């Protein structure tokens, strides 16, 4: 027994031998024989009786015709506490109930005895035995044949329910080997692991389940009569899962297939028994195509169904079956003696021909006579023709039919109009949710602003320097006024109202907090500015020594801006000292930082000016040089010549004359140039 339903299942336990890695092992298994249930009986049914009892008691305490059932928030509080009270009654004979501020700031306190609770649910105890009685009735078993009765579900802990079961079963104690709350979840996990290929269990467990509902197939179409042949029980209750079914119908036109539950037993929450519908087409075309042939039997359609492990029935495929009878010529099997003697020479000739052909292949086609002989033998016609006879043969054609699934019942596709209406409704709900979140955020912001501001005004001494006593007193009164509204009329206010109240407080408090911020921020900004102006003088002096290429007008501009900033700061600081701390500040930290940043940008732009590149003059060429002779003499010198050229070029401007004189000397000493490896 769970929260909302009660089940009674009959399970048969057994074992079978199986081979694993060459060894015979015993595998435990269980098979579900039958299941019966009451979809409207559970722990919540008992709780609802207690809720009604305590609601009547609270209405009597309040009086004045108040009915707490009309207030959902109050009923939610009551139901939550009733559930706890019911759990206490399972272990105690008396249980209290206490709900603070149930309605209109009224607390509710009461007690109830287990005897009173059992009296309120008197009709439920006999009703809880109905599923168990139905299982025994349909299975044909007696109570003596039951080995154990396990209790599963939190509601089975109720003492009165256990007493009724013991009385019906004739047992002193019930079986409680499993955890009532976790058994279903653990069993489902074990079943999933047993079916999975990716999870290997240390010990295999056989599970055989059955369909909890009877499933019906119904055919509808032109020329189909509504009789037992068009409506049949396809899956009886407790049919083994998974399984496959087959149905055949003699018909020549397209039709529709409907799958439904048996009307006497529907799943919880299902109003229509039909859960699937298919359109089967292609049968009319196949019938028209083969109708002119010699049909040996009427055209029929075969329907193939499958029932999955989850108990889901579906139409997998459909075929049109056409059987045709035709006269065909086949060789005559029973031959006479005369025919046998006549055909024997042909067999001999064929053998000789084969041997002759093989011999000709071995001689690599060098002897043409042998080939001619083999050809003459193979081309020799048979003396007699084979005898055939006509025989009636039956041929079967299977034509796949097209299946189109039509969604029916709760899964039917929605119309465009309904979809548009649903989208509009969702958008409205989203707007309401956004507005609700915004309202809660603004309410929290307003509440936080009130508490933090009052705390600062009452505890921080610096506010006395920037505000008058009347100003602080007036501000605190406004905060108290809004706070009182927040907890009275503002309990159900809108986001707009919260925003207006917050803006009105900030309009009064922002100037005060601005002066409070400047009280500490302005001196810090002044100190940093003066420090930077002093460092700037050292930067300018470093430019004169390390970066003499910087334009003098740009450097002078930076120095002038620094002097202007210093003068402006002195002037504004003097004005601020003369001004009252209760008035708007003459000098703000934001203005100071803005001017300092502008000066820093100018300093950075001047500092980024690069050093100009020096001008390089090209060396003048000697008029006495001769291009061709010098090149030849340079190529004919040894590997040390490039170093000599470099040294003489760096040290003296007469390098070219030196190279020419050395080259001419080498030419005189060696009239033929030496051959060197390429550098």
From TrEMBL:
Gene Ontology, cellular component aspect: endoplasmic reticulum chaperone complex; endoplasmic reticulum lumen
GO BP term, pick one: endoplasmic reticulum unfolded protein response
Key word Transferase present: no
Region (Disordered) residue spans: 339-387, 608-679
InterPro entries noted in UniProt: ATPase_NBD, Heat_shock_70_CS, HSP70_C_sf, HSP70_peptide-bd_sf, Hsp_70_fam
Gene Ontology MF terms: ATP binding; ATP-dependent protein folding chaperone
Basic and acidic residues bias: start-end ranges: 351-365, 614-626, 641-679
Gene3D superfamilies: 1.20.1270.10, 3.30.420.40, Actin, Chain A, domain 4 (3.90.640.10), Substrate Binding Domain Of DNAk, Chain A, domain 1 (2.60.34.10)
Pfam families the UniProt entry points to: HSP70
Localization: Endoplasmic reticulum lumen
The UniProt record lists the keyword Magnesium: no
Positions in coiled-coil regions: 412-439
Family: Belongs to the heat shock protein 70 (TC 1.A.33) family. HSP110/SSE subfamily.
Name of the protein described by the UniProt record: Heat shock 70 kDa protein 17
């Amino acid at each position: 027994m769970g929260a909302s339903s009660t089940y009674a299942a009959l399970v048969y336990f057994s074992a079978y031998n199986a081979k694993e890695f060459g060894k015979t092992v015993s595998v435990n298994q269980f098979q579900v024989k039958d299941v019966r249930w009451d979809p409207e009986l559970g722990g919540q049914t008992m709780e609802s009786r207690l809720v009604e009892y305590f609601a009547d008691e609270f209405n009597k305490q309040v009086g004045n015709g108040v009915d707490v059932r009309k207030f959902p928030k109050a009923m939610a509080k009551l139901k939550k506490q009733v559930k706890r009270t019911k759990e206490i009654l399972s272990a105690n004979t008396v249980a209290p109930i206490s709900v603070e501020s149930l309605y209109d700031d009224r607390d509710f306190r009461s007690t109830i005895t287990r005897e009173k609770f059992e009296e309120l649910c008197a009709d439920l105890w006999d009703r809880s035995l109905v599923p168990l009685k139905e299982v025994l009735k349909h299975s044909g078993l007696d109570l003596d044949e039951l080995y154990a009765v396990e209790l599963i579900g939190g509601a089975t802990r109720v003492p009165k329910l256990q007493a009724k079961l013991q009385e019906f079963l004739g047992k002193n104690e019930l079986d409680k080997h499993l955890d009532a709350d976790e058994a279903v979840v653990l069993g489902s996990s074990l079943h999933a692991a047993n079916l999975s290929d990716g999870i290997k269990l240390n010990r295999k467990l056989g599970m055989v389940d059955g369909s909890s509902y009877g499933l019906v197939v119904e055919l509808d179409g032109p020329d189909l009569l509504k009789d037992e042949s068009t409506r049949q029980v396809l899956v009886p209750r407790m049919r083994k899962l998974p399984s496959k079914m087959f149905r055949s119908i003699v018909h020549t036109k397209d039709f529709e297939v409907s799958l439904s539950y048996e009307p006497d037993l529907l799943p919880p929450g299902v109003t229509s028994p039909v859960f699937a519908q298919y359109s089967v087409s292609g049968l009319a075309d196949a019938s028209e195509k083969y109708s002119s042939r010699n049909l040996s039997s009427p055209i029929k359609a075969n329907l193939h169904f499958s029932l999955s492990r989850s108990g889901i029935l579906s139409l997998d495929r459909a075929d049109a079956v056409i059987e045709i009878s035709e006269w065909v010529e086949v060789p005559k099997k029973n031959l006479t003696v005369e025919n046998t003697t006549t055909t024997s020479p042909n067999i001999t000739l064929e053998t000789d021909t084969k041997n002759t052909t093989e011999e000709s292949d071995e001689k690599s086609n060098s002897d043409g006579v042998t080939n001619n002989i083999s050809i003459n033998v193979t081309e020799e016609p048979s003396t007699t023709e084979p005898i055939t006879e006509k025989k009636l043969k039956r041929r079967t054609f299977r034509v796949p039919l097209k299946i189109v699934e039509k969604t029916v019942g709760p899964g039917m596709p929605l119309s465009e109009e309904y979809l548009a209406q649903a989208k509009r409704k969702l958008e409205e709900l989203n707007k309401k949710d956004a507005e609700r979140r915004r309202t809660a955020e603004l309410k929290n912001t307003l509440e936080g602003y009130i508490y933090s501001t009052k705390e600062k005004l009452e505890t921080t001494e610096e506010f006395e320097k920037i505000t008058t006593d009347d100003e602080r007193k007036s501000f605190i009164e406004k905060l108290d006024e809004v706070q009182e509204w927040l907890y009275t009329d503002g309990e159900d206010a809108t986001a707009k109202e919260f925003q207006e109240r917050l803006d009105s407080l900030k309009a009064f408090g922002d100037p005060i907090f601005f002066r409070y911020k400047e009280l500490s921020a302005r001196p810090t900004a002044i100190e940093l500015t003066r420090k930077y102006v002093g460092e700037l003088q050292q930067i300018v002096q470093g430019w004169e020594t390390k970066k003499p290429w910087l334009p003098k007008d740009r450097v002078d501009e930076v120095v002038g801006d620094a002097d202007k900033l210093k003068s402006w700061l002195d002037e504004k600081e003097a004005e601020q000292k003369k001004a009252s701390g209760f008035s708007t500040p003459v000098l703000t930290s934001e203005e100071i930082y803005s001017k300092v940043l502008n000066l820093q940008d100018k300093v950075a732009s001047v500092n980024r000016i690069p050093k100009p590149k020096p001008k390089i003059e090209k060396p003048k060429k000697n008029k006495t040089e001769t291009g061709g002779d010098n090149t030849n003499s340079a190529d004919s010198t040894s590997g040390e010549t490039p170093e000599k050229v470099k040294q003489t070029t760096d040290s003296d401007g007469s390098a070219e004359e030196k190279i020419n004189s050395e080259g001419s000397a080498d030419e005189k000493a060696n009239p033929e140039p030496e051959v060197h490896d390429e550098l």
